[in-house]
């Protein structure tokens, strides 16, 4: 029976719709990458998988931030650290903090001191850091190394999600300035990853804490929390507030949780790395004091790398134990080291570090303007907080009334919080809104010279604060230059940094961020000079601090207000409707509470020239001050002659020449060179992986082939010549592998695999046929028996009592007979053949015959179950037993016309109608259970219910090798 055309079209349409839906779902996954100095954690959000940590190749939840190169191979994580123990200069670690640093930065000097075995040279173009790899001509910048780790992170995420992922939120230390943040974005660009946002690690951890505790927030009073994060490299402390705030939706406002960072304090070099280095040096001095060898262990880079690794392990063990042995076999000159170290010794080594534990916490409190009594709890984050002495000093020095919070996962909090932000920013997920406001750690100002009126007097320099210390972001700011009508320039840079020590200011690098020169100012002014009804409002520069903490100059324009005559009659209906709708959604408070731009102060006001406070705002960018806004929106009903006057705003764009003064990442050709380098390394890794897979497949095939030929089922399916040929081929390939096969390319290995497959495939197919044939024959016999039984029942009935035609009965009879005869003949012939001969009765032909009989039976059974036999009813006339004077016998014709007279048959029909479901319901029931007959309906012939035997679904073409 053929399938109707309309069913084919419907099925195809549904399939295409489902395919498009699935394809869309599989493109939704996003990831977060928490890349730290020592460890990298990756989290994913995909359909059905909310905020899950992606496992690496070793099924671990975090991966060391390490990249190693050895013998043309690149390794990551634990494998890279293994290379680093033997060849320290080949494994690059702790390179994250070198992003955006010039070669003379104090951080670079400290890095050279900590890891003297790296060959660090200046970049000839940017004067930044370059790692020269060994004796080769390979050079790697910190951006390239970070890009390699980001690429590996995406690989872990894609393996966990089972689909391609290209969007990410990346967490960075909060003390990263403009140079470091731009370098991180450039590293992601090299890796081919679209960055949705850079998020500070402490903000991500606070978000992870807040999303599970929104029920504890309220609308009236904020809840204050402190997050103490001590990582491998540095320590960051943030004070944040949680509060429920009504959304700005005028139609359906709702309470939304808000997270605001109020204060931040940090110590760049207070972390687990410094403790590990001190423990390394301590172990080296203790070993030298043993005088086991005349050589100084500190002069041997490989020995120091071993000590560094053991110091890290020992530090972690001493966090849970009071003493432990440091053990290294063959540290130097084949001498072993075994030294007992106590926790007290470690605490004495790091005494000055523990004295600094509370300093960043106090700085964060001071910046927030709060006291410790207002803090709900101090929440620990970061692996460094596991050190007992760190916790003791926090409890002692902070004097908090609440115990330290340990409910956050110290390793994964930032990654999971960033994953929630990634899901929020992506287009494929809808999550509950959780508004976050970060804080500006390094204030930014604009510096310019006042327009020179008297050339004999020196130009006076003016400074304007754009974003002050702890100002929230994202937000926009406008600075207005009222006096400048000629081309001029100004500088953007960091403002007063009195809250930082001198060394930290040096670590920021250049304090000047960019030099901006404006061209065409005079031409813009000249367009409107002398025009009646024009009023210039100055040059306005629009700045924005975006979600990633990056300062962006969006545009510069001359703002001019013109008074023109408005022809109200010519105003379009569409314009009127648009203005009316706009006014409905704009209240008077929004008109008056616009953002105040940063204006150039009048020359006669020396106090206001120094500073001009601005208000924080995240409103749309086209702003003027409040006075201007009222002027633009107020009507002027002064007289009839002026009632049609209105003020329009004209914006004239000013050309901007933007020169960056901080360390910029690679651009143009250098950027493309880095991308090409990463692509080539990835191709090498893929070729290596493919080669390993091909080699493993070939070796496995040889072993399995030899093992199978020893089994009776397989050996009986091959002739002696075939068996010997297969064994000879296995020996040939094995010998080739031992000689030079392990160095062959993947294509050569695949060809050897195909050669072996060709000669073993016939034997394996015969074995498969012999193993599967009995079960397939049993299934066919069962189907034939059921069909015969069904046919006999039909033959014992008349055609009037069944829904079948004679042609259908004859067709079934003929089909059963043909298949039975074919089966008996084929089985007889197959039993005469030995197993090593190709079979005449194959599994595929049996399945085809089974399918044909099953298809015919399914058609007949469907027709039978939907058939309703006709009811045979004979109406009976009810004879009255007595007659009165008022009741006389009626003729049948009169009874038929008399509605008061009912026959027994009619009565029975009404009863059945009252107690049985309608025919429509019966039809539905029968459709839902097509293999069930209605036993309540009388039928003269009962037909058996036979379910066709289902063909066992197997891939007949599958053959194991």
Task: Write out key terms for the chains shown.
6-stranded mixed β-sheet, 961 residues, 42% helix, disordered N terminus
How does this model look, in words?
The protein has 961 residues and is of the alpha+beta class. It is 42% helix and 21% strand. The strands form seven sheets. Strands 1, 2, 3, 4, 11 and 12 form a six-stranded mixed beta sheet that branches. Strands 18-13-14-15-19-22 form a six-stranded mixed beta sheet. Strands 21-20-24-25-30 form a five-stranded antiparallel beta sheet, with no helix packed on it. Strand 26 and strand 27 (551-565) form a beta hairpin.
Task: Report the mean per-residue pLDDT as an integer.
Answer: 81
- CA radius of gyration is 42 Å
**Approximate strand percentage:** 15-25%
Helix content: 40-55%
Tally the helices: what do you get? 28
| Estimated structural class | alpha+beta
Gist of the model:
The protein has 961 residues and is of the alpha+beta class. A hairpin with a 2-residue loop joins strand 2 (39-46) and strand 3 (49-53).
Map the helices and strands.
Layout: H1 5-25, E1 30-35, E2 39-46, E3 49-53, E4 63-64, E5 66-70, E6 73-76, H2 77-86, E7 91-93, H3 106-114, E8 120-122, E9 129-132, E10 139-140, H4 142-161, E11 167-172, H5 178-191, E12 194-200, H6 201-210, E13 223-230, E14 235-246, E15 255-267, H7 272-289, H8 301-318, E16 323-332, E17 335-342, H9 343-349, H10 351-355, H11 359-368, E18 375-381, H12 388-398, H13 413-425, E19 435-439, E20 444-449, E21 461-467, E22 472-473, E23 475-481, E24 488-494, H14 502-507, E25 512-519, H15 521-526, E26 534-545, E27 551-565, H16 573-584, H17 588-592, E28 598-599, H18 606-610, H19 626-633, E29 645-653, E30 655-660, H20 668-709, H21 712-715, H22 720-739, H23 746-795, H24 806-832, H25 843-865, H26 892-897, H27 904-915, H28 919-928
């Amino acid at each position: 029976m053929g399938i109707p055309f309309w069913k084919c079209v419907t099925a195809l349409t549904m399939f295409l719709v489902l395919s498009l839906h699935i394809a869309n779902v599989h493109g939704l996954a996003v990831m977060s990458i928490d890349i730290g100095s020592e460890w990298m954690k990756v989290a994913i959000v995909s359909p059905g998988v909310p905020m899950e940590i992606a496992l690496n190749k070793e099924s671990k939840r975090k991966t060391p931030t390490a990249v190693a190169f050895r013998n043309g191979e690149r390794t990551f994580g634990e494998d890279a650290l293994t290379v680093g123990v033997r060849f320290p200069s080949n494994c690059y670690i702790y390179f994250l903090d070198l992003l955006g640093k010039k070669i003379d930065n104090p951080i670079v000097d400290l890095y050279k001191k900590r890891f003297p075995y790296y060959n660090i040279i200046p970049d000839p173009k940017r004067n930044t850091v370059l790692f020269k790899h060994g004796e080769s001509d390979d050079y790697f910048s910190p951006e390239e190394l970070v890009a390699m780790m980001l690429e590996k992170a995406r690989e872990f995420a894609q393996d966990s999600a089972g689909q391609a992922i290209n969007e990410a939120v990346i967490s960075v230390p909060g003390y990263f300035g403009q140079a470091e943040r731009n370098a991180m974005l450039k590293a992601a660009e090299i890796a081919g990853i679209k960055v949705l946002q850079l998020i500070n690690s402490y903000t991500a951890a606070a978000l992870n804490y807040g999303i599970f505790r929104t029920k504890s927030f309220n609308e009236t009073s904020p809840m204050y929390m402190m997050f103490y994060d001590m990582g491998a490299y540095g320590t960051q402390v943030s004070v944040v507030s949680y509060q429920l705030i009504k959304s700005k939706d005028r139609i359906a406002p709702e309470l939304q949780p808000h997270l605001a960072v109020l204060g931040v304090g940090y110590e760049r070099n207070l972390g687990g790395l410094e403790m590990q280095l001190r423990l390394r040096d301590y172990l080296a001095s203790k070993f030298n004091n043993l005088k086991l060898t005349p050589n100084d262990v500190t002069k041997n880079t490989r020995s120091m790398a071993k000590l560094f690794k053991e110091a890290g392990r020992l530090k972690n063990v001493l966090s849970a134990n009071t003493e432990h042995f440091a053990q290294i076999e063959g540290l130097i000159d084949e001498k072993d080291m075994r030294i007992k170290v106590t926790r007290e010794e470690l605490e004495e080594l790091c005494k000055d570090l523990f004295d600094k534990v509370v300093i960043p916490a106090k700085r964060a409190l001071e910046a927030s303007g709060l006291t410790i009594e207002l803090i709900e709890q101090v929440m620990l984050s970061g692996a460094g907080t596991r050190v007992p002495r760190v916790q003791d000093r926090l409890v002692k020095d902070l004097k908090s009334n609440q115990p330290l919070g340990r409910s956050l996962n110290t390793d994964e909090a930032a990654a999971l919080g960033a994953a929630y932000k990634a899901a929020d920013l992506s287009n494929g997920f809808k999550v509950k809104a959780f508004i976050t406001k970060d804080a500006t750690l390094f204030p930014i100002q604009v510096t310019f010279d006042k327009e020179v009126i008297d050339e004999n007097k020196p130009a006076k320099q003016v400074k304007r604060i754009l974003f002050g210390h702890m100002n929230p972001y994202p937000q926009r700011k406008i600075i207005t230059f009222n006096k400048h009508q000629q081309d001029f320039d100004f500088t953007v840079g960091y403002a007063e940094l009195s809250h930082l020590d001198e060394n930290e200011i040096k670590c920021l690098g250049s304090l000047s961020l960019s030099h901006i020169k404006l061209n065409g100012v005079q031409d813009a002014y000249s367009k409107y000079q002398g025009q009646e009804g024009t009023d210039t409002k100055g040059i306005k520069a629009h700045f924005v601090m975006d979600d990633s903490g990056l300062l962006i100059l969006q545009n510069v324009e001359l703002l001019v207000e013109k008074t023109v005559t408005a022809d109200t009659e010519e105003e379009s209906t569409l314009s009127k409707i648009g203005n009316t709708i706009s006014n409905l959604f704009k209240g008077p408070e929004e008109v008056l509470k616009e953002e105040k731009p940063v204006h150039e102060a009048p020359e006669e006001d020396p106090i206001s020239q120094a500073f001009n406070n601005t208000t924080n705002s995240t409103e749309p960018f086209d702003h003027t001050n409040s006075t201007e806004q009222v002027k633009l929106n107020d009507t002027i009903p002064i007289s009839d002659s002026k009632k049609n006057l209105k003020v329009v705003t004209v914006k004239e764009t000013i050309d901007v020449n933007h020169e960056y003064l901080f360390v910029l990442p690679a651009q143009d050709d250098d950027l493309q060179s880095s991308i090409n380098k990463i692509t080539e390394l990835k191709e090498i890794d893929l070729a290596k992986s493919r080669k390993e897979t091909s080699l493993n497949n070939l070796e496995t095939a040889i072993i399995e082939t030899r093992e199978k030929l020893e089994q009776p089922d397989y050996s009986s399916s091959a002739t002696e010549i075939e068996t010997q040929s297969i064994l000879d081929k296995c020996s040939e390939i094995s010998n080739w592998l031992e000689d030079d096969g392990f160095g062959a390319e993947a294509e050569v290995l695949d060809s050897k695999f195909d050669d072996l497959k060709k000669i073993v495939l016939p034997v394996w197919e015969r074995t498969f046929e012999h193993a599967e044939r009995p079960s397939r024959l049993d299934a066919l016999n069962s189907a034939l028996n059921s069909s015969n039984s069904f046919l006999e029942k039909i033959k014992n009935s008349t055609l009037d009592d069944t829904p079948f035609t004679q042609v259908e009965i004859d067709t079934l009879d003929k089909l059963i007979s043909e298949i039975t005869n074919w089966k008996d003949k084929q089985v007889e012939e197959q039993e005469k053949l030995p197993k090593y001969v190709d079979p005449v009765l194959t599994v595929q032909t049996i399945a085809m015959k089974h399918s044909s009989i099953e298809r015919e039976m399914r058609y007949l059974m469907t027709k039978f179950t939907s058939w309703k036999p006709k009811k045979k009813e004979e109406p009976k006339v009810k004879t009255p037993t007595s007659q009165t004077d008022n009741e006389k016998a009626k003729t049948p014709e009169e009874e038929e016309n008399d509605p008061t007279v009912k026959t027994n048959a009619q009565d029975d029909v009404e009863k059945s109608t009252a107690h049985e479901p309608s025919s429509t319901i019966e039809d539905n029931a029968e459709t839902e259970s097509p293999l069930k007959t209605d036993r309540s309906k009388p039928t003269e012939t009962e037909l058996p219910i036979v379910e066709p035997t289902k063909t066992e679904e197997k891939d007949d073409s599958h053959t194991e090798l």
